[in-house]
Amino acid sequence: MGEVIRCTPIITKIKETFENPEIWWVTDYPELIPDMVDHVLKFDLENYTILKNIDFDIVYSLDKELICCSLANEINAETKKGFKIESGKISTYDKDAEYLWIRGIDDKLMKKDTRNYIDLIFETSGFNFNDEKYLLPNKLEKSFELDGKKKIGLNTGTSKTWITRIWKKENWEKLIELLLKENYEIILLGGPEEKEINEELTKKYSEIKYFGVMPICEYISLLDSLDVIVTQVTFAQHLAIGLNKKIVLLNNIFNKNEYYFYNTEHIILEPDLSCKMCYKSKFDNKCLVSNCMDLIKPEQVYNSVQKLVK
């Protein structure tokens, strides 16, 4: 979902570059696509059949996944940008995509790279990035009530595909206890995968609030009501950037330079380890510690929240 959000600036560039463009977007998350897109298709057999029978001028294939690259190969288009599948491997359609492709397989280049991801996908698409903003779905009227105090959102989870990014429940508990002493209003955030931990935390700390799993547009309204958002690298991070919210980001396995925050005030906390930016989805016996996210202490996060609030 975060990948969808941080590809939305390209819509603005397409609209500026081409006269009257008709834009089609294929995605697993149609609810995230802005109204500026003419046709939003979920990837299934029916829509695949439709796409196979349309002649496009340009295809932008930006996701280095076999299924996405296979679809790009199948679609009829005069020009193709980004990534394709070739002999069972991910490859590039042209030179514009080569840097991002090489960055994905060369650890040394990735770790020293200082370019942000949006700039890289613009280059892959044949554009120059000029600070085009995230485009978010329209917000819904809020069905939740908040107090007048400073509001701190805690996004307690991340995709279980990447368990290396998850901050333990014990750490969230300690952070909540520190923040409650400052009389902040604490709101728990997350999707279906975070429901269990958020309900457990709400049961333990009656002062905090959790509004359950929300529709995307209502969730965006909730985030927009907050003063500071504490999050691991996940969907909420990208929404917070799009909403220009103050962010405390807990990062370990990714290169922090790939995130572009525009003018959003933020603090990035990372473990002090030489092996960070490993891009591992699971910890293994080559890791220097059993869980490097534990090296980011609740006290550090608390101090960062205090700094952004004050």
Automatic annotation (TrEMBL):
Keyword Acyltransferase appears in the UniProt entry: no
EC code(s) of this entry: 2.4.-.-
InterPro entries assigned: Glyco_trans_9 (IPR002201), LPS_LOS_Heptosyltrfase (IPR051199)
Enzyme class, broadest EC rank: transferase
Pfam families to which the protein is assigned, alphabetical: Glyco_transf_9 (PF01075)
Keyword Transferase: yes
Gene Ontology CC terms: cytosol
GO molecular function, one term: ADP-heptose-lipopolysaccharide heptosyltransferase activity
Record keywords: Glycosyltransferase, Transferase
Name of protein: Heptosyltransferase-2
Species name: Methanococcus maripaludis (Methanococcus deltae)
